[in-house]
Design a protein that fits this description.
heterodimer, A: 179 residues, mainly alpha, 1% strand, B: 886 residues, Leucine-rich repeat, LRR (right-handed beta-alpha superhelix), 15 helices, 52 strands, 29% strand, extended
């Protein structure tokens, strides 16, 4: 089923919308959740909330790119969940990625400013580098998976990512933001 | 400096970039340009170094080469990636939040202070959630270590609590500040905060699950973020007036919720044991429960039901529900009186708190629900119980006696896969009912053993050749799910054991915390012994090995590893961490493409060694690791003829046995066998092998081309290859077609070249099928790809060769009686001359066998994986698909 039809189903409040969405994009969104939560049960709950979130968002939303919207919803829910969990549970699995999640949500203006700096930074990159960055920090893929997504070696990806981080950190610092 | 959550910020970038990321397809690029990449890498490093050098502001601001940012003797931040950190002696003061910005903060295990540091600010270590050791030089007079506590010498700051096994703790009178993470995640049940405490640091007391009360003295002025977060047993407490607190300081703390609610909060009631789940559910948000139940029932009745947003809360249970069996009459409506509730006990480890039973004809509908907002809500009416699991039970009398075990008042009934509920259902004489996770993980019998006092059951099963067990608590408290770590531990060191040999040891001697069970059991057959020491990483008396096989792109690799070592499905990597019970994994890395660049360069001039089976390999040791517990990291790079095929990465830890490499690793290396896998049909593998070997030679300017001849076809066939070894044209039957895509004869692509009925057909797939090129006597045809599952070539009524899409290979064979199929998504090719299907299996007429790359095509597996949910048999699939449009 194509994305436009799925969105129509949501707008028509037809429950099959969720089934169709899941058939097409569940693995994608689930992997984003799992990359952040690293826990089967939490991911399960997160996905439940995520489908609910989609149901509640469409309408009024009509996403241009459905999988992007769905993963964004899932990601936000997963981050929230992780934050709740992180202070009270010593997770045995701490990947570099989740080290970047603070225990409390950050103030809005600062986040927006940082997002702008990051967007500007990304706009100056070539497409593969940008996609690599997003796979790692947006989708939460491991370095190996992110490398695969853009067709380069894992080692090359690691090097690229650490340079991008260093540059970005510097730019953020200039705006008075630390990460 | 404002500190923000990086991932949050990335989430808000220009959404074009999010969309771009999701829709991006990588160009089909080879990844062998190792030499040139490293040159570029070197250049960039120089550039960045230059940029950094230029940015130095003043003499007193130093970012040293280890990542310490020091200004006038104050350590402001750390940007290195070590997990064992030694603070330079030029640092006098470590500032608040020095580590919070570091991405690896959670991995930092050891921080060492020499004699230079004199002052550590209270939140200096904020972010170091997993700090194991804070080591301060003995002659540093600014700090003392006494009786398990690390404090400043004047006793005013408690930096770290290191006592073990204590259940109560009195903070010394001298302490006015408790540092970040100082007393985090302990098992303390009581803490006396003294009378002089003023300032509590970031996550200072977070995660103390067992802490029963938090009575803070009036001297407290400030409580940092997360200070008591997760102290979910603290049902009593006192917070002085006028105290300031940071975000989530009392997250999930029962007495705090009650304080805000003005009465006993749900969490407090739960923790005090004053309410059972069945009582709670009746006080919870009943509207939410009612609409969920209506939604469930309407779905089971098969009605078209428009679920409201509130009803959708039960979506998880509904969308996955088992089929309604015969004999079940789903009620048209219900009232609360029809429902009975049984408690599973309060828990958030996967077992749901309460079961809701609703009679339905010969069956009972069971819905398991849990309190969704119990840890956060102020009032029960704000708590929604979320229906999360739905199944049906028949009377236990109907269970097959062989699948039932009775002991200590419990009856355990084993479900089977395909049953309505396939886990183990335990019912007690008093009516309590508890269930385990579904047993779909295992296809072998379970063995069930009850503990002597009847409060726990051990379930043993084997899966993929390795024995596992898990412990089920029967008092509803916790479901002890198979904990990855401790199953690993037991399987690792004692190898496979026979299910049924698990025996309970006297309760008093069971070690560890109940929650996830660090139980020691006898797992040797026929012998009851009790372990009294921590086993080492390798049990020399267990020499059993197993053969593991892995298919890489053009090769199959086999080797023998100790039986206890566990495989991951897609890759192997010999990495282990010496953390005792946790984190033992045995994995093996694949594909030469992921070997680090510098290692390739290093070995360029070396001589390889040869293993016992005649395969050569290089050994490279990576010196750059900083962690103190690692002895070394080794790469063993195996070749097949002149190609690097795969690498084994092995990390050897300091507490590994002596001669670990010799005793454990060398036998594995010697057992390695590599076999090439044929790449396509009708073409000798060595043809493609030649192509691979010529790579790099053809990487010249101006590009030159060369012919690549294919043998074994009934007519001459050849490709003209161009720069970087892509085919430019294909010639057969005296005709030439342009290959208008970048086809790869290596890496992850699958190539098919075969003959069928007077035509040479060439196609390939790389994460999706490419074009199909057909050359015959007097005709050529090029068929465009579609990114769906399969392509089928067939002869239409005029005898012309056509192309169509199919998801059902076998049905199409049945229809057309002879065809040639290439598929991309499941990476196999098969070619059948005349063929039909009988009894669900292909029957080959005069055709060649069907071939696969990688695994042989398994019709049963395909049916099970894809169709069995919807069809009863493969025959049904054919029937139905006959009518699908092409």
């Amino acid at each position: 089923m194509n994305d436009a039809d799925i969105i129509d189903l949501f707008w028509a409040r037809a429950e099959t919308a969720i089934t169709e969405l899941g058939n097409k994009y569940d693995p994608l969104a689930r992997s984003v959740a799992m990359n952040i939560l690293h826990d089967r049960l939490d991911t399960e709950e997160c996905m439940n909330d995520s489908y609910l979130g989609m149901w509640n968002s469409l309408p009024p939303e009509k996403p241009q790119v459905l999988p992007a919207f769905f993963t964004a919803v899932t990601r936000n829910i997963a981050l929230k969940r992780y934050r709740y969990r992180s202070a009270s549970k010593r997770s045995a699995i701490m990947e570099e990625l989740t080290d970047l999640i603070t225990s409390a949500p950050s103030p809005e203006e600062e986040i927006d400013l940082a997002a702008k700096v990051i967007s500007d930074f990304l706009s100056a990159l070539d497409k593969p580098s940008r996609v690599l960055f997003m796979h790692r920090y947006y989708m939460g893929d491991s370095v190996a998976d992110a490398a695969k997504a853009v067709g380069i070696t894992e080692n090359h990806a690691g090097v690229k990512l650490s340079r991008m981080r260093a540059k970005l950190k510097k730019k953020l610092r200039e705006e008075g933001i630390t990460v | 400096m404002k500190e923000i959550d990086f991932l949050d910020a990335v989430g808000r970038v220009d959404k074009r970039y999010i969309e771009e990321c999701i829709t991006y397809k990588p160009p089909k690029k080879m990844n062998i340009w190792i030499k040139s990449m490293s040159a570029i890498a070197a250049c960039l490093v120089l550039v960045i170094a230059a940029v950094l050098a230029v940015n130095h502001q003043s003499q007193s601001v130093i970012i040293d080469e280890n990542g310490f940012h020091i200004e006038d003797g104050v350590l402001l931040s750390y940007s290195g990636s070590e997990t064992d950190i030694t603070i330079p002696d030029t640092v006098e003061t470590i500032a608040d939040f020095t580590f919070l910005g570091n991405q690896n903060a959670n991995k930092i295990e050891v921080v060492r202070l020499g004699t230079g540091v004199q002052k550590v600010e209270v939140n200096a270590f904020a972010g170091l959630d997993n700090l194991v050791d804070l080591i301060i030089a003995e002659n540093n007079l600014s700090f003392v270590y006494e009786d398990g506590l690390i404090m400043t010498s004047d006793g005013s700051i408690l930096l770290r609590y290191e006592r073990e096994g204590e259940t109560s703790f009195t903070i010394p009178e001298s302490v006015r500040f408790v540092a970040a993470h100082a007393v985090q995640g302990t098992e303390l049940e009581e803490i006396d905060f003294g009378d002089n405490l003023e300032y509590i640091g970031y996550n200072a007391f977070a995660g103390n699950y067992a802490l029963k009360a938090i009575y803070l003295p009036d001297s407290v002025k400030y409580i940092s973020e997360g200070a008591f977060s997760g102290c979910s047993s603290a049902v009593d407490g006192y917070i002085p007036e006028g105290v300031q607190f940071g975000g989530e300081a009392f997250n999930r703390v029962p007495f705090y919720l009650s304080l805000k609610a003005g009465r006993m909060s749900p969490l407090e009631e739960v923790k005090r044991g004053r309410i059972t789940p069945s009582e709670a559910i009746l006080q919870s948000n009943l509207d939410s429960l009612t609409v969920q139940l209506e939604y469930v029932l309407a779905t089971l009745r098969g009605e078209d039901y428009e679920a409201s947003d509130a009803a959708m809360f039960a979506y998880g249970a509904v969308h996955d529900h088992p089929e309604v069996p015969e004999g079940m009459t789903v009620p048209k409506s219900f009232s609360m009186e029809d429902l009975t509730f049984t408690d599973n006990g309060w828990s958030n480890t996967g077992i749901y708190d309460v079961q809701i039973h609703l009679p339905a004809g010969d069956y009972t509908i069971v819905m398991e629900a849990y309190g969704y907002e119990t840890y956060e809500a102020l009032y029960w009416e704000d708590v929604r119980f979320r229906i999360s699991k739905l199944y049906y039970l028949q009377s236990p009398d109907d269970a097959d006696p062989d699948d039932t075990v009775t002991a200590f008042g419990w009856t355990a009934v084993f479900g089977h896969e395909g049953d309505l509920y396939s886990g183990i259902t335990y019912t007690h004489e008093d009516g309590t009912l508890i269930r385990s996770f579904p047993r779909a993980e295992s296809y072998t019998p379970y063995v069930l053993t009850f503990s002597p006092e009847g409060t726990r059951a051990a379930v043993e099963y084997t899966y993929q050749g390795t024995a596992y067990f898990y412990i089920q608590a029967l008092n509803g408290d916790h479901l002890m799910e198979p904990n990855y770590d401790y199953n690993e531990y037991l399987n690792k060191y004692y190898g496979q054991y026979e299910a049924g040999s698990l025996q309970w040891i006297d309760e008093d001697n069971i070690e560890g915390v109940n929650e996830f069970g660090r139980f020691r059991f006898n797992i040797y057959e026929f012998e009851v012994t009790q372990l009294d020491h921590d086993p080492g990483l390798y049990d020399p008396s267990n020499n059993a090995v197993k053969t593991v096989e892995h298919s890489l792109d053009y090769y199959t690799v086999r080797m023998e590893v100790p039986v206890g070592w566990r495989d991951q499905t897609a890759y192997y990597d010999l990495v282990r961490r010496g953390n005792g019970l946790n984190d033992y994994r045995a994995l093996v890395t694949k594909v030469y493409g992921s070997v680090p660049v510098r290692i390739i360069e290093e070995i360029a001039d070396d001589e390889p060694q040869t293993n016992a089976n005649g395969f050569s390999y290089y050994t490279v040791r990576d010196e750059t690791l900083g962690a103190t517990n690692i002895e070394g990291k080794y790469y063993f790079l195996f070749q097949y003829e002149t190609q690097l095929v795969f690498s084994l990465a092995v990390t050897v830890y300091k507490d590994d046995m002596d001669n670990y490499l010799e005793t454990v690793i060398q036998p594995i290396l010697d057992s390695v066998v590599i076999e090439p896998t044929p790449a396509s049909i009708g073409v000798e593998y060595s043809q493609f092998q030649n192509t691979i070997q010529s790579m790099g030679e053809n990487d010249t300017f101006p590009p030159h081309s060369y012919p690549f001849e294919i043998t074994g076809m009934s007519v001459p066939v050849y490709f003209e290859m161009r720069k970087y070894d892509h085919p430019k044209t294909l010639t057969a039957y005296g005709q030439t077609v342009e290959i208008n895509e970048r086809v790869y004869f290596y890496g992850n692509c699958r190539v098919g070249l075969f003959e069928y009925d007077g035509a040479i057909i060439f196609t390939w797939s790389y994460y999706g099928i490419g074009y199909v090129y057909i050359l015959g006597d007097g005709f050529t045809e090029i068929i465009e790809p579609d990114d769906t599952a399969s392509v089928m070539l067939y002869l239409d009524e005029n005898g012309a060769l056509k192309y169509k899409r199919t998801n059902n290979h076998m049905a199409d064979i049945a229809q057309s009686g002879g065809l040639c199929v290439a598929t991309g998504y499941d990476n196999f090719l098969y070619c059948i001359g005349s063929a039909s299907v009988e009894g669900g299996k292909p029957v080959l007429g005069d055709a060649e066998e069907y071939y696969t790359i990688g695994d042989k095509y398994d019709l049963d597996l395909e049916f099970e994986r894809i169709y069995s949910r919807y069809y009863a048999s493969i025959e049904e699939v054919f029937e139905i698909n006959k009518y699908l449009p092409s």
